[in-house]
Amino acid sequence: MNMTSGTAKSVKETIIPAGIILFPGLKTAIIEGDVVGGTCVNRGCVPSKALLAVSGRMRELHDEHHMKSLGLQVSSTGYDRQAVADHANNLASKIRSNLTNSMKAMGVDILTGFGKIVGKQRVRYGKVGFPEKEITAKNIIIATGSVPFVPKGIEIDGKTVFTSDHALKLESVPDWIAIVGSGYIGLEFSDVYTALGSEILTHIRLQKVLEDSVRYCSKMFGPYTILIEQVTFVEALDQLMPGFDPEIAKLAQRVLINTRKIDYHTGVFASKITPAKDGKPVLIELIDAKTKEHKETLEVDAALIATGRAPFTSGLGLENINVVTQRGFIPVDERMQVTDADGNVVPNLFCIGDANGKLMLAHAASAQGISVVEQISGRDHILNHLSIPAACFTHPEISMVGLTEPQAREKADNEGFEVSVVKTSFKANTKALAENEGDGIAKMIYRPDTGEILGVHILGLHAADLIHEASNAIALGTRLQELKLAVHAHPTLSEVLDELFKAAKVNSGVSHSVNEPVAA
Ligand SMILES: Cc1cc2nc3c(=O)[nH]c(=O)nc-3n(C[C@H](O)[C@H](O)[C@H](O)COP(=O)(O)OP(=O)(O)OC[C@H]3O[C@@H](n4cnc5c(N)ncnc54)[C@H](O)[C@@H]3O)c2cc1C
Ligand SMILES: NC(=O)c1ccc[n+]([C@@H]2O[C@H](COP(=O)([O-])OP(=O)(O)OC[C@H]3O[C@@H](n4cnc5c(N)ncnc54)[C@H](O)[C@@H]3O)[C@@H](O)[C@H]2O)c1
């Protein structure tokens, strides 16, 4: 296909501005304004998980009690900040290159430049300083993603006040960092920062008098002696991790926050943040989230702004097709078809991923893309967003699918059905105990009348992998009556879910030996 010709004659042609998915069988072009792979590969999931892989190991090696109970002795550990940063960067490059090669192998045209919709089925794209090119396509999928959202009053300098885009480069490990926002990004980075700073804290049981000299050493001798003294969370809502099931958030606070060098301020907004300069620290002004009154000013070495992400949809030419964004998000229906200012579907135009604001997760973007391709290929498909799992890759991990308990109870009240909850502890799982990783809980919310799973929430070892049995059950509509009979290998962590399924009391279900729910 000659992309510069301005008209493409193929019946099945899809232009995907900056998409993340591949579709064999359709003639496909992708327009990318920056680097292939988008946020996930270059500034998101991939490099962050590389840093978290390091923090997980550091945390384990430093946990003397844990090591001793396994009979292991670790005499010394350390890390090289630049080598850790290189691991994250190299992984992103590798995945980016794999992705580019697969797209080329499948015959996808990769076009470089910023894309703009200029009319129905028409996209113009180009790089600054070069003549623009125009192409047409039968179907267009917008997948322009998101960028870090920085609230007004916060000044980013990229060195002492920064977003995840900068933090992932791990150019420094500050002594004392404030993390504004306790969502996914905040939590994952708190895991990284506290793990990388814990060495000195555990090996030199610091007395106050020694602290200043150690901090001085850390600056003099570089990466091996860098000290993290503390992480401070600043969260606008009244509890940390407000998006999680409240019971899981409470336990997560006990396991991931209270046992670490972390303090927090909830119910406050960071209204103004000034980067460090002229020997002065970063200044964070906190106001009460409700009264807006000034509460206090924090002085820290650095601040990570993790206050959510904003859709990247400006300059896309949506006005040319009568589409108006809602807080920047592109409105779509349940089939990801873009709707115009009058609420009508714009034919052959779809929007997937962060730009539509339904669920800001890489696999949600992918699943929405696959759903769109099913439709383009003549097979109607609606994605059940309640079956999409999410995971936070802290140590231990947190994962979830479906409704939280308050959401399920609200739905039950509105629709007039009953809700039941079962829980099990990782302490009851042989494999978790063999690993000496009994800190954890799994919780399932379900309908006792039908055996339908409404939500599952897990905090514990490999929670991110464990959630899929539940998410697939929700996606496929498998009922607890059937799941109770499924066999799980012993001893495996998967038995945590087996416990939940067997513990559920389904009114119409077959009778089985039912374990009483175990308290966390
Ligand atoms: C630190 C961090 C960690 C994360 N970890 C996870 C995780 O572990 N698991 C998970 O599921 N999700 C994670 N996410 C979220 C995940 O990265 C996003 O949900 C996902 O990348 C969204 O994909 P997308 O295709 O919608 O957009 P993006 O990945 O943002 O891609 C959009 C692309 O569009 C390009 N673009 C934008 N406008 C134009 C235009 N007009 N023309 C041409 N190109 C354009 C951009 O350059 C970009 O390459 C993380 C995010 C962050 C920030
Ligand atoms: N493991 C993963 O899947 C993963 C990892 C990282 C990011 N992500 C995705 O990236 C997106 C962005 O993550 P995030 O952590 O930035 O957003 P988030 O929405 O998860 O959390 C942002 C938090 O910041 C708080 N906040 C907002 N403004 C504030 C202010 N001025 N002062 C104090 N607190 C404030 C909010 O109350 C909220 O708790 C998420 O939607 C998530 O889906 C996913």
UniProtKB/TrEMBL annotation:
Binds 1 FAD per subunit. Residues 388-499 form the Pyridine nucleotide-disulphide oxidoreductase dimerisation domain. NAD(+) binds at residues 181-188, 235, 308. Residues 25-369 form the FAD/NAD(P)-binding domain. The active site is at 490 (proton acceptor). Pfam families: Pyr_redox_2, Pyr_redox_dim. Keywords: Disulfide bond, FAD, Flavoprotein, NAD, Nucleotide-binding, Oxidoreductase, Redox-active center. Disulfide bonds join 40-45. Its cofactor is FAD. FAD binds at residues 49, 115, 144-146, 354, 360-363. One of its GO terms (molecular function) is flavin adenine dinucleotide binding. GO terms for biological process: 2-oxoglutarate metabolic process. GO terms for cellular component: mitochondrion; oxoglutarate dehydrogenase complex. Belongs to the class-I pyridine nucleotide-disulfide oxidoreductase family. PANTHER family: DIHYDROLIPOYL DEHYDROGENASE, DISULFIDE OXIDOREDUCTASE. This is Dihydrolipoyl dehydrogenase.
